[in-house]
Amino acid sequence: MRIKPTSWGPPLVITSMLGAFSPGALAQIVSNGGFEIPLVAPGSATYTAGQSFGGWTVDLGNISLNNECCTGNSFSGLQSAYLSGTFHQDLNTLVGAQYALSYARGCSCDAIHHHEVLLSWGTESVTNRFTELGWGRSSYIFVAADVTTRLSFTGMDILLDDVLLSQWHRLHSQP
To answer: Residue 75 above 50 pLDDT?
Structure first.
């Protein structure tokens, strides 16, 4: 199964709905998806290739944790990540299990028209293109092909926040 965007509305509604039918569905797998660790003083802290913070490792370029930005401090919580490169987190997954991922993304102060985030799940990848100013959400369903799956994000002058990932259970079979 390939990565597919979801079409069932805001991810918060989905996770709440899944939680009502499947108690295990709300278990958050991503560590520090709100980029609150470490908490930085007003301004930002920048991490470069080879450095780690709060469960994430920077692969290329740099990632800054921000609590001040022209589009708002963050989508949720106190901080967001400002991408000028690639970073990842290796996750424990069940082979063949489906996972629901959602995240908030926004453009930076100096970005003007077209923005994109490259999202990778193991060997699969999808480019999320958007043009709106401020914050928006993206959601996908993935299938794990291994017991460890690398989740990575790549972007240039992009804000990222509220990364949520949990095992997804079908509530009923589709006709």
So the answer is: yes
